[in-house]
User: What shape does this take?
Amino acid sequence: MTPAEIRAAVIDILETIAPDEDLTNLDDTKEFREQMELDSMDFLDIVMELRKRYRVQVPEEDYENLVSMGSTVSYLEPKMAGIPAE
Amino acid sequence: MYDSIIIGAGMSGLAAGIRAAYYDQKVCVLERHYTIGGLNSFYRLRGRNYDVGLHAVTNFTPPGAKKGPFARLLRQLRMTWDDFGLSPQLMSSISFPGIELQFDNNIDLLRSEVSREFPSQIDNFDRLIESLIDYDDLEQKHFETSTRERLEQLISDPLLIEMILCPIMWYGNPRERDMDWGQFCIMFRSLFLEGFARPFDGVRLILKKLVRKFRELGGELKLRTGVSKIKVENGRAIGVILDSGEELTGLNILSSAGAVETFNLCETEENIHAHTTGQLSFVEAISTLDKYPRELGHNKTIVFYNDSEKFHWERPTDDFCDIRTGVICTPNNYCYDEKDGDLPDGVMRVTALADYARWRNLDKVFYPKTKNNWFEQIQASAIRFVPDYRPHVIDTDMFTPHTIHRFTWHENGAVYGATRKWLDGTTAIKNLFLCGTDQGFVGIIGSIVSGISMANQHLLVRS
Assistant: This one.
């Protein structure tokens, strides 16, 4: 997956987790929690959905990498490079 | 071998099951009763539908709300606001002799009522609201402090304290007389800062949606499948033995059976918490009417009444019931959708405090007689606070603490469970966790959130 494809995959996960959020103007440099009503349970779901959909494991000590879209995509890039886009 | 075995197909067990199944676990929910629901169930009698437990769904927030337990559970269960089919209440009241505080799903009404009846207390009331702990900040050490002491520091009129405590204790206090401050904060938010609602079709709608979701995700629901033992080896739960003798093994076991009830299933010495068994149980006198309550001049959704200035929240020790205080629920009085129209009949449900042991010890002859006797007394108590509906009654039913115990196996028929809560859901036995009433959240939304959060923490994260 390219970074753009990874970003699209994360957007799809966010839409599943928080269907009421409008993600069209999501700023990749800002933290998710500044732009969306996401609580700790929702954050856990990002990790769980990555595991469910792409078999990508995010250990607890790496959760801090998932604060914004930008940092999430760079963190996932090496882990998802070998996964074909859908 | 299951990834997760869940005991009890009530709101919390089913919600936990949905979370586990959604994330591809092999999961089963075991229920001893022949139907789902646990403490919030339903039945049909002489052609009419009845709810058990549900007076109102608390924690109601409108569509689009992103905060609060209801919005959170919708996201977590991947369900929509419309799935719950909730219609908000009309208006409710706290009714004491000669004084009444009305409230609805907007705190402004209650504030204006407090400032009219207790003009010197409105600032104190606002301070109380500001000092409530947020849901996410509840910790065991603050949770168990005395609510009465906190309220006495904040509010100087004892009558207002009693009037605030009445509905809050009625809707979720497992302790007698006083209440855990954490539990009070949860309940205050869910009743007054969020609100009441009800699905037109009652609690069965919510339960059926949960079961459908669980099954679609591949979860197994086994009814008439009681657990007689939890198998423990070297301090670790490894499976369950069913009433039939069959054994199931699982990596984790999540029990909504109640704390004491769960420990009693374990083949260990862990009965140390037996003294925390709840003592509070209820009777409910349900009347079907030939008119709608509003035709009799009754427009309130719920009336919490108490017939003196002091509110007594304790198990009756010298009789079957204590009818000084009660809750009158009128399921007709919600803002239902026009397309649904009205419920088929007018209904008045009155709940009173009751003593489990006295009801349990009755024989087959005296049990129905005692029920009839107390049905009359409860109605007579209630009509001091609502119009006299007795001439319009065309059918009745009544449940007692004995009924609650018979169908839920909760000790003492204690609807709100043990007097202490296991907020983190862990037990002294590895791989055995608690959810539901004894984990700390009560009510329909509360128990669903309990199932979700315990599944997240104990069934999913570590696996």
User: Anything to note?
Assistant: Chain A touches chain B through 17 residues (CB under 8 Å).
